[in-house]
Amino acid sequence: MRKILIIEDEENLSRFIELELQYEGFSVGTAYDGRSGLEKALNEEWDMILLDLMLPSLNGIEVCRRIRQTKHTPIIMLTARTSVLDRVSGLDSGADDYITKPLAIEELLARMRALFRRMDQQTEKIADSLLNHKNIEVNTESQTVKRDGEIIALTKREYELLTVLLRNMNRVMTRDLLLDLVWGYDSAVETNIVDVYVRYLRNKLDMPGQESIIQTVRGTGYVIRKTEG
């Protein structure tokens, strides 16, 4: 069940939105001024925040700005103001979308669904770009490799060899196949270059006294095996 925080000083409107969202299956929290809303936004975990622009004690722009200093919770700004400057100010402060009052609940729900879809897609993209094994993390977007959170400098070939092995977890990769995938099928290098680069990776990634990240399958090639449990 997704949790929604409504920060809106018009209690009748807040209650109307709350009931509609509960009917749609959301869990809803409310706040009626900027300071209490900011406190709830920062001290609890929410899947989305519906934030009024004009609030007592602390306006919506400032609330949004302070939330964005520490959190990436999706925010839809609710505003009775229709000027471009007001909308731009809301978006520049960190809001993901805005909707003008008087609002139609169908439009609000549609905007919420669209924003959830974007956030879910971003989450999936981030997950797809991360390759993890034991204490090793590879980010294929930034092409960085970390061991225990510390960046390990790899050459282009070392990086490509590691990512191929990680993407084929538990699959034994022959030297010929690794040579084709990393160096190219028409490469003039010998298959023993694979052994050389595996040794380079082990020297950079393995911890003293622990089993190697990359395991040798005698007479065949190499494999990274997923740890059970």
TrEMBL record:
<dbReference type="InterPro" id="IPR016032">
    <property type="entry name" value="Sig_transdc_resp-reg_C-effctor"/>
</dbReference>
<dbReference type="Pfam" id="PF00486">
    <property type="entry name" value="Trans_reg_C"/>
</dbReference>
<dbReference type="InterPro" id="IPR001867">
    <property type="entry name" value="OmpR/PhoB-type_DNA-bd"/>
</dbReference>
<keyword id="KW-0902">Two-component regulatory system</keyword>
<keyword id="KW-0597">Phosphoprotein</keyword>
<dbReference type="GO" id="GO:0032993">
    <property type="term" value="C:protein-DNA complex"/>
</dbReference>
<keyword id="KW-0805">Transcription regulation</keyword>
<feature type="modified residue" description="4-aspartylphosphate">
    <location>
        <position position="52"/>
    </location>
</feature>
<feature type="DNA-binding region" description="OmpR/PhoB-type">
    <location>
        <begin position="128"/>
        <end position="226"/>
    </location>
</feature>
<feature type="domain" description="OmpR/PhoB-type">
    <location>
        <begin position="128"/>
        <end position="226"/>
    </location>
</feature>
<dbReference type="Pfam" id="PF00072">
    <property type="entry name" value="Response_reg"/>
</dbReference>
<dbReference type="GO" id="GO:0000156">
    <property type="term" value="F:phosphorelay response regulator activity"/>
</dbReference>
<dbReference type="InterPro" id="IPR011006">
    <property type="entry name" value="CheY-like_superfamily"/>
</dbReference>
<feature type="domain" description="Response regulatory">
    <location>
        <begin position="3"/>
        <end position="116"/>
    </location>
</feature>
<dbReference type="GO" id="GO:0000976">
    <property type="term" value="F:transcription cis-regulatory region binding"/>
</dbReference>
<dbReference type="InterPro" id="IPR036388">
    <property type="entry name" value="WH-like_DNA-bd_sf"/>
</dbReference>
<dbReference type="GO" id="GO:0006355">
    <property type="term" value="P:regulation of DNA-templated transcription"/>
</dbReference>
<protein>
    <submittedName>
        <fullName>Response regulator ArlR</fullName>
    </submittedName>
</protein>
<keyword id="KW-0238">DNA-binding</keyword>
<dbReference type="GO" id="GO:0005829">
    <property type="term" value="C:cytosol"/>
</dbReference>
<dbReference type="InterPro" id="IPR001789">
    <property type="entry name" value="Sig_transdc_resp-reg_receiver"/>
</dbReference>
<dbReference type="InterPro" id="IPR039420">
    <property type="entry name" value="WalR-like"/>
</dbReference>
<keyword id="KW-0804">Transcription</keyword>
